[in-house]
Design brief:
12 helices, five-stranded mixed sheet, five-stranded parallel sheet, elongated, alpha/beta, binds S-adenosylmethionine, 273 residues
Length: 273
Amino acid sequence: MEHNTLYVVGTPIGNMGDMSPRAVEALESVDFIAAEDTRVTVKLLNHFNIKKPMVSYFEHNKHDKGEKIIERILSGESCAVVTDAGMPCISDPGEDLIKQCEQAGIRTVVVPGPSAAISALAVSGLETGRFTFEGFLSVNKKSRSEHLESLRDERRTMIFYEAPHKLPNTLKDLYDNFGDRKLTIARELTKLHEEIIRTTTKDALRYIDEPLKGEIVLILEGKKEQSASSITPEEAVAYAKKLIENGMRPTDAAKEAAAMAGLKKNDIYRELL
Ligand code: SAM
């Protein structure tokens, strides 16, 4: 491995068999490793019998630690940046470190490994030709709804990371924003309990009312060209009124009609009131 270099090293997302020989070689050869959580990475190092000094580099210390890492690399050392699982810098610390390397004129070398996003997309059964990676949805209500709204007309397949305990709430938000669409829930990829649930936003909301265990990626179908234009907002309101006449609660009727027309529930609900 070269001096004065940062190696961006992908590590398994669950199955140690996915660690590449080149990743092992990189971790063995660098002077030190910058790890998101050293307690996690030490297990990986032990598994491959690698002994190497580590520094912790995570979201809340990344600025100060980043500068120290840059100083060490400039003084002649080589460093490998890793995260708890998968590719560093993708919804993970590391992104800023690359920018700091660029500013300091430090060479960066990628040692690619598995990525949860791409692995989930590959098995999703949805269109893979064009896609967007959306990372985690914010827990802040305002930025979360702005993010979701900005995607309502997105035609490309969308990839989201999600924490298991937030899943029921997110399924509700997906249905409210996008209506009924194909959705794949990829859970515990490469692990013992790997599961690929190919479903729809509607069915997922109906059947998954408890947090699923483990790590999850959500793959959502993009908007179909037809869906919005085939049903006008007026038709959707008329449909909602029919549902109410048949005994459905206005809020549920608005939701169902909105989903059918690819509109927002509140747009229909306002008209009903
Ligand atoms: N940088 C990593 C990558 O791109 O592979 C992802 C790190 S991100 C902080 C963690 C998220 O990745 C989890 O919340 C989950 O959404 C996803 N993830 C990681 N490992 C996974 C696995 N084995 N199966 C499904 N999703 C996984």
